[in-house]
């Protein structure tokens, strides 16, 4: 049926881009599985899907950063095999990356013309000409961006517009905008949409990635949905609605093996109560609470403020306004060490850069922030006590390692994650933030970590689990706080915790 | 990691098999410094008979004591991922002030105490600026290096300060039962540093900060306070080196110790400590300092031109770094 729809469309308009049966694997995981996509000239085509559905991988293939394992890409009737990004640019593909590709120390003009500098007849840079071109691009976008200041001094929104201007400057025939609105204010989004409509009138095909439903319904002509790396459906925007799209995104999936949730105990004492948390002046004000023995899920899209909230609560980053109660008593938490003194710990999102001390052994990593517990006499540490504790934890968490002295860097990703988790198990901390606890971990290890978290909750730990994996949030959390644009828009409980509800509040707010 | 010291082969704990014991020794950051020291010493012994005498060994110890003591503080700083360029200048300043106070009639004990306190104070300033003002250690200590050197010259008017009580020379060139006193002081400092680094929570934090500062902070360790302590220790060992130096020269030399920061860094790196921090040991630094001392002494004895000696030392440092890179 899908193919028939594509064929029907084929006859209607000339295709600017046809992606056919593209697959891509990265060391064992299949990121894209025979994905097809067709974008007409002069069409704004939305690409929709959860985090990790394969959108960014597909875009990176379209712009030559990755090469497909199989399948074909046809631009304006010509089959293309981009060996690198430059070839894609030469073929008329312009992309504004989600993670900006800008050089922080160069200014906007230098960034826009990086690698394609305009030269005067003497072979020197024609700064004047480039400046004029850049100025006219920003005038067209309707934004004021300082041309001569280094990119790092610009606001995130300004940087986003430089990234977009960089793509526009190519006079691309296919323009890819990867979540361009994530950092923009509504007014700025309107400017962007005006420009997109104008570019569209010139016959340029635009792929627009956004998680915000209202934007898709406002600006896009067609929408294609990816799910788990595969094509999940495609429709004309005028002929579909939000529920249908969410259904396509979520699908009916096989539940992973999650431990059974206990029935909620409304009388359990509140372990952590964040009465007010306002990270930036004028930003959203959030509040939430976690009971003893409870797993609270933080759901939402990447960049929706979940990690920022956790970091601000433990004092790793500054908050404009923060009132926190720990076990009923008000607590000032200016830094992670003070939070730890109050029994609050964080398992960071990126274990390699924020969790693990890579040169350390398994033992030294596990006992790192708990050394007071292993004193022999005076300030001297007991190696034997640390060893015994480590061996016990290796057994409890089932870390596969050569032993307590094995270097942490020799362990697999899942085992490294378990090492960082084990750090908190023999600790006085009883309120734990787990930020993406199963990211990059194979399925077997995931199930073990789920069991472990549920076991901790049963022991009386309070857990806040940040997760971008919908099934994980649904399967693990007793309650789910859904974030959107920095704000907790809804807290779901019991039977209301469904993929559709989480996705709806995360993408549309209401 | 501290496990370099805690590894079975070096702690004498039973290892599972002899081959794994050797493998553990090879993996240890002490392996190449030890091999280097043995090879260079053997070469020197071959080249000149005088090298192997007890007198000459005492001589080497006296020559390296000052650098070796400075290198202890440098080891703390480098393990934590920083660098301290102010050590040589702090040594000169504290040594000059100690000499000035003694020449003015103050008792050596009080003069030495004052020198130590000044070293601690400068180290604490370095530490506070690095830890709490977030300034890069190389810039902070470059600046305090200049300030300390300037203060030494101002205090002394640019001239050596003489007129110290005769017995003070014990600390610089005296012997106790045939062992140089400065060597005893050095060994005591290394022993204390080894205990702190390998067997206390603070020591573990030093390695952790160098291994991954962000992770250390997020895990709830007071990184700022630890950094303050690390640079303060470096200031203290520099001051101790200043006291030994002044006692050996029997005068306060405001221009002494120029370039010592580089020798100290060389000793640390030759000793197998990673320049980016997180791995290494103070025992390695002692081996590195000995290696430098043996090289200096041996090359002099063989009659190698001092200019050429610099080139040889530079090549050996490059070689050491290259080999330790291979090891990773």
Care to give the gist of this entry?
The complex is a heterodimer of chains A (510) and B (328). With 510 residues, chain A is α/β, with parallel strands linked by helices.
Mean pLDDT over the full residue set of chain A = 87
Task: Find the CATH topology of the largest domain in chain A.
Answer: Rossmann fold
**First-to-last CA distance of chain A:** 32 Å
User: Using only CA atoms, what is the Rg of chain B?
Assistant: 20 Å
- Radius of gyration of chain A, in angstroms, nearest whole number: 25 Å
Morphology of chain A: globular
Architecture of chain B, according to CATH?
Orthogonal Bundle
Would you kindly provide a written description of the structure presented here, covering whatever features stand out?
The complex is a heterodimer of chains A (510) and B (328). Chain A is α/β, with parallel strands linked by helices. Chain A has three domains: 42-67 and 83-250, 3-Layer(aba) Sandwich (Rossmann fold); 269-343 and 429-510, P-loop containing nucleotide triphosphate hydrolases (Rossmann fold), CATH 3.40.50; 358-427, no CATH class. Chain A has helices at 2-12, 55-62, 85-90, 108-112, 127-141, 156-168, 186-201, 213-219, 242-250, 306-314, 336-341, 351-355, 362-367, 383-397, 413-422, 443-459, 470-476, 499-508, and strands at 15-26, 29-40, 44-48, 70-75, 78-80, 93-96, 174-178, 205-209, 222-227, 230-236, 270-278, 285-291, 295-300, 321-326, 329-331, 344-347, 375-377, 380-381, 431-435, 462-466, 479-484, 487-493. The longest helix of chain A is centred in the C-terminal third of the chain and has 17 residues, at 443-459. Mean pLDDT of chain A is 87; it is low at 4-11. Chain B is mainly alpha-helical and 328 residues long. Chain B has 16 helices and two strands. Chain B has helices at 3-6, 8-11, 18-27, 31-47, 54-79, 87-103, 108-131, 137-156, 169-173, 181-199, 201-211, 213-218, 223-249, 260-270, 282-302, 306-327; strands spanning 175-176, 179-180. A two-stranded antiparallel sheet of chain B has the order 1-2. In chain B, a hairpin with a 2-residue loop joins strand 1 (175-176) and strand 2. In chain B, helix 5 packs across helix 14. Chain B is globular. Chains A and B meet through helix 11, helix 12, helix 13 and strand 18 of A and helix 11 and helix 12 of B.
